[in-house]
């Protein structure tokens, strides 16, 4: 009788450590340690609003691509060509902007991304 009583009862939720996982917690600890090291080495520069905005702008594109790639992988369509297309597009854009002297946003090198998006649907 005790078996049926415990079988009907739901399990208690796992602890925070169990839900997040040891690997993810170790990554968060490493991030905090790095922030502390850089903050101590260059306190006059590292935590300034301008530097934090520059760091945010630098990782924005990678963050958006990572979220999109996560959706693709979770849905079962394992597509790892995104990284190579982004690398190729970035290099073509940088070379074209340097050779033409135009700002990167107006460069015609944005087209490889468009080609990839149209060819994959």
Indicate the topology:
Layout: H1 2-8, H2 16-20, H3 22-41, H4 49-74, H5 81-100, H6 111-120
Helix pairs in contact: 5-6
Give structural attributes.
disordered C terminus, 6 helices, mainly alpha, 121 residues, flat, single chain
Summarize the structure.
With 121 residues, the chain is mainly α.
Describe this structure in words.
This protein is mainly alpha-helical and 121 residues long. It is 73% helix and 0% strand. The protein is built from 6 helices and no strands. Helix 5 packs antiparallel against helix 6. The longest helix has 26 residues. The C terminus is likely disordered.
Summarize model confidence as the mean pLDDT.
75
The portion of residues assigned to helices is over 70%
Low-confidence stretches: 111-121
Oligomer: single chain
Order of helices and strands: HHHHHH
